[in-house]
Amino acid sequence: MDQDQTEPTPYPPPKRASILFQLTACSSVLFIMTILAMVASVFGDQSAPAAKQFNRHVGKIIAFEVGATLLLGFAAMTQDRRQTLAEREKNQPVE
Question: Is the pLDDT of residue 12 over 60?
Answer without folding.
Answer: yes
